[in-house]
């Protein structure tokens, strides 16, 4: 069996102290750049792996954060996770990722598992089924810091990092109105999820402030996936007739609506699609969507920096809403 390489083994080989080796591996400024490079090279050659368990027992911190998201195969969450991982890596934190698959029971299981793993903090984007913050009470009772990002609760006593959903949606719908669209339908999310509620509110505000020639609201509620967009667009046609434009609560919902049009020989040129969120895939569409582009990577970075700040605070942090600015991509 291969022997576990210890700090003392590296120290003996390089004729350094164990403390110096430890500092070099952590890029401590007390150690010269040349020595750091030499220590890391020997550590790699010897197959050294840091003992994270021992470190956590000594510091009473695991240097680990838990991140829970609804889905990974999503145009929004992938760059957000990139932002979290890169920021965490720069701060010497490990990330444990849990994917709830929009299932509140699985979300609860992930929370409990991560608390049992003694994570130092949690970053959570809730499922579309999660209607209240009751399940996060245990996190507070255990003294673990938690920050919501993208999807969360504004009134739950936790910091919430999000995009300015209402005003961004309003700006996007007003752009459609200014282009001459009078019959604008909304493929909405659920009101129990704040992003759905706020984006719908922006849509309604834009319509109410427009001229009297506008058609009234045409709203169908559903989830945030392509399937929801497909089924939702069919309901729009059945309940309200063919719209001039649709505002989709997410980019995948917009893709679902487009798929329905293609399957049922509806010309995409006849219906303008505005989506909250975008994708690199958009430029490959014959008729690209108008997108409300979210600062996804920045959202991940800001979320990690905030949870790190709260985890390291010597006083109880004051919960706050941090809103980032989206940009309309015409």
TrEMBL record:
SUPFAM superfamilies: lambda repressor-like DNA-binding domains, Periplasmic binding protein-like I
Ranges for domain HTH lacI-type: 5-59
Domain of life according to the entry: Bacteria
Coiled-coil ranges (or none): none
Signal sequence interval, chain numbering: none
UniProt KW Transcription regulation keyword: yes
Keyword list, A-Z: DNA-binding, Transcription, Transcription regulation
PANTHER family the UniProt entry points to: HTH-TYPE TRANSCRIPTIONAL REGULATOR GALS, LACI-RELATED TRANSCRIPTIONAL REPRESSOR
Protein name stated in the entry: LacI family transcriptional regulator
Species of origin: Rhodohalobacter sulfatireducens
